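Need C-alpha cells for this chain, all 208 residues.
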Amino acid sequence: MPHPTPTAEPLPFERAPPPHHLQPYEPAMALRPAAIAAFDALVHELHPDAARVDADRLQRLAQWLAQLPPADARRAIDTRLQCLQDLRAMAVDPAWDCDPALRRRLERLFAYIDQDEDLIPDRVPLLGLLDDVLLIELAWPAFAAEAEDYRDFCAYRQREHPAGDAGAQRAAWVRDRLAELALLQHHARVSDSHYANGRTPEPVFRVT
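Here are the C-alpha cells for all 208 residues:
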C-alpha cells in the first residue's frame, strides 16, 4: 500500500523522472554528504519506513521543481506548508491530547523547519524550502492518522458546538464517533443476516 501523503499529488521523490528527461538545474546544489546523512537520519527518526534521501534524488527533485511553472512550484510548496500549520494547530490545541511519543516527533519536525540554515538554507531562491516540504512529505505517514482525526474533531467542534471545557469537547467527539461506529456495525450485522437468509436488505439512509 502506498504511504499517505499530505496532498493528493505526491512529490516525485521515489519515482523521479530519469535525469535525461530533465534539464540540469544550475547551479547544482552543493550539499555536504554529512548534511544529507543527518537529514536522512531525521527523516527515519520520524518515520522509519520512509524512502532514503541521497544526493541524486535531491538533485532530481530540485530539477523537477525548477522546471514547473512558477505558480505550480509555489503551490507545491504552499500546500505542504499548510499541512504543517495544521500540525502546529493540533500540537497547541488544549482539546487535543497527543500521545507523548507523537508530540516528541512533532517537536523534532518543528525544530528542523524553524531553522533558517538547514540542509538547504531558506534564503536560496526557489529551493530554500524544498528540504522542509520534503521532510513533511516523507514523515507524513507518522502523523497522517492523528492529523485526520484532528481535522474531523475540528469540523465536529465547529458544527456541533459541544459544551464544556476542552476535555469535555473531545469526550463528546469520541462518544459520538463511537456511537456512529456501533450503528455502522449494527447495520453490517443486519445486512449479513439478510443475505444469509436469502433476502435483500432494505437500504439504510442517514439523515444529517
